[in-house]
Prior knowledge:
The protein is an alpha+beta fold. It has 3 domains: 113-252, no CATH class; 264-392, no CATH class; 396-463, Arc Repressor Mutant, subunit A (Orthogonal Bundle). The protein contains 22 helices and 8 strands. The strands form 3 sheets. It has a 4-stranded mixed beta sheet with strand order 3-2-5-6, with helices on one face. Strands 1-4 form a two-stranded antiparallel ribbon. The chain has a two-stranded antiparallel sheet with strand order 7-8. Helix 10 (203-210) crosses helix 13 (231-242). The longest helix is centred in the C-terminal third of the chain and has 38 residues, at 303-340. The radius of gyration is 32 Å and the shape is extended.
Amino acid sequence: MDMQIRQQMALKQQLVMTPKMQQALKLLQVPALQLEQLLRTEMIANPMLEEVIEDTGLEQNDDETDQKHEEDLERWEEYFENHFNDSLDNGYSRGSFEAKEEFERTQSDVATLQSLLLEQLRLLSRPESDLQIGEYIIYSLDDRGFLEMGVEEIGEKLGVDPDEIERVLREAVQTLDPPGVGARDLRECLLIQLRQSGREGSLAWRIVESHMDDLERHRFQQIARALRVPIADVMEAFDEIGGLEPRPGMAHSDDGARAVVPDLVVDRVDDEYIINLNDRNLPRLQVSPAYRKLIGRGSKTSKETKAYVVERLNSANWLIKTIEQRRQTMLKVMTQIVDVQRDFLDKGIAHLKPLTLLEVADVIGMHESTVSRVTNGKYVQTPRGVFELKFFFSSSLASDRGDDVSSKSVKERIVSLIREEDSARPLSDQAIVERLSAEGLKIARRTVAKYRDQLKILPARMRKRQ
């Protein structure tokens, strides 16, 4: 086989993501709160950018304003002359600064589970050795508040007898608040909560202690026969157990509820819906007119300084233009969503229509990926509540009426049917299919089962209560 090294030329098309394109896509995707932080960071990096200050009604002397601009120019010109070359030598570049995002880190209002438990542990009158063991156990808990490590493993790591670990776990950690922390499984978690509420030995306690498997499978008849109590008492105990917390640590998890700042606001005025961007907290940027003069000073400004100022000026203009494009794109997308989902805004979720990203993209004349970036992680405040933009997009199901129905409205109807069912004779998936078919919806039983699983609703045999 003849193998030789040859030079070959080929022509091909390739999309190259320039830094400006990357910045534009990034600004389009981030929500309003993060955008505000990015803009303020960019204002620090680029002296050409300044925030437009609202008119306060105070008159300023034009001569004083011009004098202040001249003084600023002199100071910046001196800075450019003395430090411009040094900044280049130190590896400063626009890209390196922009790649480093600096956000304000705020303290969470919700105390972590570990800090809450440690604070309570130190208030107990326990020997120092018990406190050290207790701290190790607390730091070994998962987000649910469960202890997944065995006492033998903890004892081996601390060089302590496992019986001592078990004693501290029961006498100290498992007595802390929230009730149920330090449990090793769901059964122990429920028993701890019943013990702390003074219900040790109750029917609910006996069911959890000895019939947890039957309880999970809703075998109420078997539990009643085994404990020789009426089925009504078992059902009452079941409701009591249902009020306990299966994951006591989640209320103090770092992944708990977070505040949502809507990016868009939809208000109803008479019979029309008005769409506004919730960007009142965003800084209004403009190019500083004072520093433009640096470019036109001729021989007074060095070539390096002038090149730097031009680059910063172009960057500022591009950023301002990109922000405006972001505003217009978001308004276009939201306007189309409102046009399609007007019945939902008027009447509720039962009237939510199927909608895809591609359908919106075709109408507004943009690419589907652009619409995806606009809707990702952003929220809108409507007369019906605050929703993520992704909420308005769903697949469709056919109906006898000839129009398509949103899968979200079908799920809501399934929830409604199960909520209204007879608990002694719960609806099977096939029965739900028949009910929906009678309403004109064409849906398969496996689709109902899939939606029910997504809604975290138990099957009929496990919802049955006698």
